[in-house]
Each structure stands twice: as C-alpha cells, then as structure tokens.
Amino acid sequence: MAKFKIATPAGASFTTAGGGYEYEMEPLEGIDAEIVEGPTDEDGFIKFARDADVIYGKGIRFTRKIVESLPQQCRAIVLGSVGVDSVDVAAATARGMPVTNCPDTFIEEVADHAMMLLLAGHRRTIEQDRMVREGRWREGRPALLQIPRIMGQTLGLISFGHVARAVAKRARPFGLRIIAYDPYIEELVMVEHGVLPATLEEVLSQSDFVSMHAPATPEAEGMLMEKHFRLMKKTAVFINTGRGPTVQEAALIKALQEGWIAHAGLDVLEIEPPGNNNPILSMANVTLSAHTASASARFDPARKRHVGRELALVLSGRWPMSCVNPAVLLNSQLRRWQPVSMERGPNS
Fold first, then answer.
1. Taking all residues of the chain, what is their mean pLDDT, rounded to a whole number?
2. Which residue numbers delimit the D-isomer specific 2-hydroxyacid dehydrogenase NAD-binding domain (predicted)?
3. Is 201 a catalytic residue?
C-alpha cells in the first residue's frame, strides 16, 4: 500500500473508470503515492475518502458536507478544470484547505472557439449551410446583404481574464473596436491590451458582439438578466464560452424569440446537457456546441500533467501553483506549508 492516498471519483468527468492515470503519475515519480478511485455519490465518497491525503476532484460536486468530512490529514482538493464551481471553496478555505485549478491550460482553445462562434453568428453560417442543403441557394446572398461587414464594429467583453484577453488579441486583426467590463481588473491592464474600459451598461448598449467570460462564482450566478438583454442592439450577437449559470437562460430565450438581439453562439447552457424541451435547441438564430470549447488533442495530457504537478507539490509539503483560495483566509494555516518562495502565493 502506498504511503499517500489520492482519492478521486471513479469514471467521472474527463476520465473513465479504471482508465489509467499515466499523465498524472509522471510528476509523482519518486513519491510513494497512488490514485485510488471511489464512489461518485456523496455519502459513498465521504466514507471512501476518510483516509485520503489529497483529493483529485472531478465529475462530482464537492459540497460543504464532503469538504467538512475530509480527514485532517487531507492537504488539498486538486481540480483538472479552469472552473472551481464544483467545489464549495468557502468551506475548504474555512478549514485551511487549498483548492487548485488549471487556470491557463485551455486558454487558446477557448479563445479560438469564442472567435468561431462570433464569426459563425455574424455570417449566419448555420443558416447559410441549411439554405444550401435545402435547395434554397438563391436566398443566401440576400440574407447576408442585410448584415454589415465586421470591420469597424464593436466587441464587448464581460470579464477580462485570460480567455477574454486572448479573444481580444484574435479580434483586433478583424478591425473590431474592443471594450470590456471587469470591476476586478485595473483599467490600465485593459489599455495595455488595446481594450477600452467600460461599464456593464456601456458594453451591452454599444457592442455589436457581446462575449461572456465571467466565471461561475456566487456573485456572477444569474448575472445577465432580462434588463441587460433589453439594453443590447437588435442586431447584436451574444457569445458565451464561460459558464451557463452566469446567464438567466429564460431571459436569453425571450431576447432571441422577441428580437431584442439577433443571434447567440453558446458553448455553455444553464443545465447541461439540455432537456429536449429547451427552446434553444429549435432556434434557427442560435449556434450551439456541447461545452467543448476547451477540447483539443492536447487537452487531456496538458490538464492531467498539471494535476500531477499540483499533487506532487502538496504531497511534498509545498504550496501549489494554482491555489484559488484567498491568502488572507489561509494565513492561520500557513505554518504547515513550506512554500517554494514568497512569490508563489495562493493567487499565483
């Protein structure tokens, strides 16, 4: 039996039960640790993880009940995703337990996908494809004659994290004017990226394309509602490659049905996968993908190796690279850690 037990739900999220953890184990070479799969139900996992040294979190929601039941020896919850909405971070922080994510592993892929949805929505790619397949060849050009060229239009970004910055970099060569709203980012940071700071109302009312990048935090849940979609241009295209719950989907559906906005490109939905009765599935003015923006050939290797590096750090008694917990709330626990350097803080 290995010295350290890394507990993880079986067959959850991006893996299959017993599918192997070769990539995760690469950085763990020389550390007597084993990744052990357990139940995916709450009570079953609590019982299974009672002797865990670290949690490899994927697939299930790590509720306050699960977090508070973890043994004192458990050092961290390590996630293989950018989002941390699957963990009650406040509960983990309260007991001094770091939660880590993969903050920069999929940035380029998601930015590419956002630009794909923007361009597909602007040029009505799905509708154009359908016209050709249905023998309506002559309808294609008249439909696009109603749409202005992309050069000179405005792209508005809601949140200005890594993905939004990468989207701005891709959008600039198309001749788009770019504005952004993010109350947590200094305006000078936006200016350095060639982006003009704006209020949320300005982003919504001025933009021809609105791209949503807010993370799934309690503060951002349901952030965009009916009053916000009413501010947007009737010709606007709305893109969301962030998290579905940041948008009140009923309000978005109403906006699309009643013509408050022209089109939506969505990689994420409020409930995934959507039920067959979701009106979005039958809307001609919506381009959809199945929460696949981050997917590419490098997805699993990059994500899993990052997880392995974090596991190796915490099991070696060092501070993880991508801790999302606020440092001020962890100060009382820092004595049990030996950070590699003062520069690698909990928000690095």
1. 90
2. 115-293
3. no
Of 192, 226, 258, 272, the catalytic one is: 272
Please report, for the chain, the start and end positions of each structural domain, with discontinuous segments joined by +: 4-104+297-336, 107-288
The one catalytic residue in 177, 243, 303, 309 is: 243
Each residue of 49-74: pLDDT tens digit?
A: 999 999 999 889 999 999 999 999 99
For this structure, is 172 an active site residue?
no
Q: What gap in Å lies between CA 233 and CA 202, rounded to an integer?
A: 11
Q: Is the fold of 4-104+297-336 the same as that of 107-288? A: yes
Directed axis angle between helix 107-122 and helix 125-133, to 10°? 60
Fold of the CATH domain 4-104+297-336: Rossmann fold (3.40.50)
Structural domain 107-288, CATH architecture = 3-Layer(aba) Sandwich (3.40)
pLDDT the model gives residue 20 = 79
**Cβ atoms within 10 A of the Cβ of 153, count?**
19
243 included as an active-site residue: yes
